[in-house]
Task: structure prediction
Amino acid sequence: MLQPANSPAADPVDILLVDDQPARLLAYRAILAPLAENLIEASSGAEALKHLMERECALILLDVNMPVMDGFETASLIHQHPRFEKTPIIFVTAVNVSDMDRMRGYKLGAVDYVTVPIIPEILRSKVMVLAELFRKRRDLQVANQHLAAANEQLVAEKRRELEMLNESLRIANNELAARNVELQSQIADRVSAELRLLEVNRRKDEFLATLAHELRNPLASLGNALNAQALSPRADPLHEAMQRQLRLLVRLIDDLLDIARINRGKLTVQHVPTTIGAVLDSAIETATPLLSADRHPLTVTVPDRSVALYADHDRLSQVFSNLLNNAAKYSPAETAIELVAKSDADGFEVSIIDSGIGLEAGRSEEIFEAFAQVDTSLERSRGGLGIGLTLVKRIVELHGGRVDVHSDGLGRGSRFTVWLPLLPVPATAAAPPPVATPATHASCRALIVDDNHDSADTLAMMLQMLGHETQCVYDPHDTLGAVESFAPDVVFLDIGMPGLSGYDVARRLRAAGGAVRTLVAVTGWGHAEDRRRTAEAGFDHHLVKPADMAAIASICGGVAARVHHSA
Ligand code: ADP
Result:
């Protein structure tokens, strides 16, 4: 808002009055005094320029008619200077200026003209407007400067905030990267620990398999010696007990081998046509020694013994003999044990029920895990490795079945139930294994090749007791020579021998042709894959150490019968 003419300016501005006549200067001063601005006087264009160099003026009141340098020349010089090019000029002319002069003045940047005689109100109001405009512009400039400063400050503040944010982000990023590195190293540690564990586990399984296999050699010698002793006329009263313990040892070793196979995923089943009756008979026969030792009466209920199965006869019989053995082991002497079988169109179910120590609630899952035993305290130990039920479960699963246990609690007996699907017997399925040729009293010539002297000698002793002629070879390289000189009808060959394996010897014997009709592998390895390999190498029979006397007698009997028949 404009100041009233008589009130002093709040913030006076400089006004330059330029005139060569002091009286006129005085008159301007008198007219403009009420405006209370700073009035600066100059008596020439040069002096005006000098003043302008020292201060910024809101406007210039410039006399046109001055000696030396007139108003127009002065205005031209002033407006050439970049600092004053916008400074408004009011020209004062003594006479009426022509239109041409006006034009000239406007080109030089004049904003207005006053003529002499000056009308004070007109001059005052013109000056007042221009002074006010200047003040406003100056205020605007200051406000602009403040704004620019505030803006700069804001930008600086924002930049600082951004930098701080960036810095904390960088720190967080670094921490994250460090944590990442730490995590990665932890993961690497875990992976390597896991690999180490897997390796240790693999070695343990390998060790179990090797241990079981290595134990078979001394057992084979013991078994052979016991078999030979059984055939001797001098009966030993300890013989039965030793046979029993040997059978137990063989079972433990078989279990160990099986668990190693389960752990390596190598346990397989060989489906053959059989019947429920045949499987259960074989299981009961295996469990009879333990059942009778503590005089457990066994009740067997099998409505239809002839139900046809297409399953692994030996492995299924192992399932039920394990369950029967457990029923005997975990029940007080003389308590009854029951075996109940049922079947329908889909499958059959066999339950083995005892009234023994039973199971605590919640333990029924864990007993199927390898090496799991509910009570390992010495006084409650019933022997065993905690493998039997793991095998049961795995074999049943390999047949597509399941096994469950139920007990009403400790001391209240247990019921193990196996359910198995009934698989149709394929038309092409192999016929049941032929019944072994009955032993005859005819004798044959048997060559035994085994680097383990005791194994070879005890087998020879047993064969001699059975009435056969024998010769032992302890170095497999001597086999062909011995075959030539001894002319055996049957050769019993160990498989794992140093320098030359039983497979190699068998192949050489088959390649050489000749009279040897029957080759028997006697080995610690009894898996299907091992049997396939011996058959491929040209063997006729595969016996697992310690070989069963009945099996040996049957093979030799058959050989002897053929030899005598063809002789
Ligand atoms: P083992 O008999 O060699 O210990 P198993 O795998 O056959 O191994 O059995 C595992 C555990 O399950 C046994 O140690 C025993 O605690 C428990 N168990 C098995 N059968 C019975 C049963 N009929 N009654 C009570 N407990 C049993």
